[in-house]
């Protein structure tokens, strides 16, 4: 393994489900990489395939008739080619996952502590007492007040924020190299979300973990991620450093998505620049650019298959759009009021 | 310029809705009580959009339902168009219900899945259906349905289809059309866009704004998303544990916030701009509404709390024109 | 913890009172029918009638009659059956109860073990031929009437194939008390156990499978898998444990109604002198005191079991614990 190889390198990941004799392509040709201690944001609207991507990497899709192709090299090993047993030793130990709704993500009949102990003891040779000591330590590190007693409480007895902290404690219990967080703050209140995001930003310092953060919230991405991957209808629309992507989105979808968020500062627009229509169902996905029917810039060359190939703006910024290639890139997002925050 | 601050100046002096010291208390088992709404007063003027924001458990949804008498209040007064509706019997209330409607968060659950859109929309027209004392004719109903579809920008063909054939955004348009069917004056919208994707959310927010201007509607717009509330509201009320902590013109409340909670709330909203300065997040979580802190409800999490806050509950008081706050030590140096 | 328990006890007593009053009303306070004649039996002598009327207070107001009946049932326990030559019914039930308890407990062990095994296997191999086979078997078990199955088994083990090596160990119909000979007790009951359990194995395995399949779609099962647990552990420690909550509550009710006399058909078919058979005989001879006693016995059991199920629920589901 070369020294600078990324921790996880995904190439041409495709996931499709068979329904009534038809293969429905949920995710098409997704490629990305995550370096050590890096936070990558996977952002897209519902149905864009972001959760399916994560589940496929974890080997958690077991629906009948699913077909997963491509490659996902984690520390040089292909996750998609692994046996169930090999993958299981990685899961929880090397790659851990946290989920959107911490209420339903814990088994309701066991205490929080029991469930964290369980993960520790599956992967490490620890006695019950050692495991519990580690659990209490972890809960404390995640900012859970009175961790000793909290460990003995059941999931329903904790608030949403505490449950999510416990969830993160469980995910980090075996010091994973990669943490996959699927909408970790969506079910939380804003002030609690801020706490959890703060916690996640600090993870890489304290635990050295890389994070794949899946979210629909562009604000969360901007505040948390080093790199961003924008998904639209199962395909990558644009990927780049968060800095570049937010300052100068090159894909009309990224630009329109950012524009449609009501601003928290500056003048209020008379109307929000909304994107017309809604994302296509997988089976109705256009052969050419999937965004073309909703795109203000779409023209004849956008429509025929195959979907536009990636155009590298620079070594860190790629976009699946013809505009930059045709010499008519989008203007930068902010001209003057970038700094005009409250 | 907020989109609707100039509209309908003439009727501004008379409130469409006035809420006076409203309480809504639930009795739980074990003899505990939950004060979901804990003494709230405000008025909504004609043509105004009042945004109600707050985090979970702040009582904003309960309050929204109380406004339309979907729940009965425990005490206090609700006055709609000058008439006290707090204790009106259902029969007297029914004609008034035409003038006040509600739009809910879950666009699917609010529509009967086995009925066509046309039937769903025609129902209120038939039930309440008198125009100048006469029942609506079939053709009048058809015409009204066509108007409604046009108002919410859906094709007329949609009337013949079932709720599940639509996307979330389209279904919310249908819900709005249903609320509009009887030409109400007041619409209470409870988290109407929070289940929608961002790109669709913008469409619906625009629709709300357009309809408000076009039809001179008055809204109480309940949401947890500050950015959405900022976009649509003329005035904003920030709620915390059943009470309003800050109330006033949108710009005053969101950009010249004086209540420590409002400040923390606005700072906590993630901005889609890289390099936004990060503020230390508020510590702790919202206490259970069953066990509210004494004194100022926010004092347990407040960065500016002092000894007095623990026992002396602050009342909402004016601090500037169109700006009220319930805090002993408002943050005046902010900004 | 004490107060909810007390409240629960109070409820139980109240329910028992309701049932007893209802049963009493049905049997003894029906207008137009003289309970004296019913208790005394068919063609009873006038002296007997007079004696019964005095003893039960049928010439006094209804509440007094009810009180006398309850006293005879629970306190003096001298409620006697005239149809059956003055046999006291309470001791009779006490003699029958261990038989029923033996039968039902054994069957319960079989059906719990088998249905958990079948349900878990079927759920684990959802959609495979094994799943289909097990569920088909379950359906067959549910569809076979217990009295028919009992008769067929009797026919095979007692008659047709009794002399073959396979069934020569089967004793004749009847019951041997455990205290007399544990081995013979087991031999006399093993076939009734299986016959009684068949239907319940079918029902419970199908219910358990359906519950498990539903639970497998839950978020916490995905979490358990994401933790790197083995599929077996995920299914048993997280899935089955959660599914047991409904399983146990169902079990409690079924067990109680069987002990309360619901195993009547099995008892009759296999000649086991249990409570069910007693009820059957009482009904045959219209023995009102005995019917009253068996119904009350059954009610006590079901209500007690209900309380026990609630307690088990508290133990199994922490969410319910806090909701109380």
TrEMBL record, chain B:
Q: Where in the cell is it found?
A: Cell inner membrane
Task: Give me the Gene Ontology terms describing cellular component.
Answer: plasma membrane
Q: Which residues form a coiled coil?
A: none
- List the GO molecular function terms: ATP binding; ATP hydrolysis activity
Q: Where is the ABC transporter domain?
A: 17-266
Cite the InterPro entries for this sequence. AAA+_ATPase, ABC_transp_ATP-bind, ABC_transporter-like_ATP-bd, ABC_transporter-like_CS, Oligopep_ABC_C, P-loop_NTPase
**Biological process per Gene Ontology, one example term:** peptide transport
Q: Which UniProt keywords apply?
A: ATP-binding, Nucleotide-binding, Transport
- Any keyword Nucleotide-binding? yes
UniProt KW Nucleotide-binding keyword: yes
Per the record, membrane topology reads: Peripheral membrane protein
Record SMART domains: AAA
Q: Which CDD domains match?
A: ABC_NikE_OppD_transporters
State the SUPFAM superfamilies in the record.
P-loop containing nucleoside triphosphate hydrolases
Instruction: Say which family it is in.
Output: Belongs to the ABC transporter superfamily.
Record's protein name:
ABC transporter ATP-binding protein
UniProtKB/TrEMBL annotation, chain C:
Spans traversing the lipid bilayer? 12-30, 99-121, 133-156, 185-204, 243-270, 290-316
The superkingdom of the source organism is Bacteria
Q: Which Gene3D superfamilies match?
A: MetI-like
Q: How does it sit in the membrane?
A: Multi-pass membrane protein
Among its keywords, does the record have ATP-binding?
A: no
PROSITE patterns from the UniProt entry:
ABC_TM1
List keywords of the entry alphabetically.
Cell membrane, Membrane, Transmembrane, Transmembrane helix, Transport
Tell me where in or outside the cell this protein is found: Cell membrane
Annotated signal sequence range: none
For this protein, the record's InterPro entries field holds: BPD_transp_1_N, MetI-like, MetI-like_sf
SUPFAM superfamilies linked to this entry: MetI-like
Q: Name one GO molecular function term.
A: dipeptide transmembrane transporter activity
Q: Which GO terms describe its cellular component?
A: plasma membrane
Chain ranges of the ABC transmembrane type-1 domain: 97-309
Family, as annotated: Belongs to the binding-protein-dependent transport system permease family.
PANTHER family in UniProt: DIPEPTIDE TRANSPORT SYSTEM PERMEASE PROTEIN DPPB-RELATED
Protein name as catalogued: Peptide ABC transporter permease
**Organism source for this protein?**
Acetobacter syzygii
The beginning of the lineage is: Bacteria, Pseudomonadati, Pseudomonadota, Alphaproteobacteria, Acetobacterales
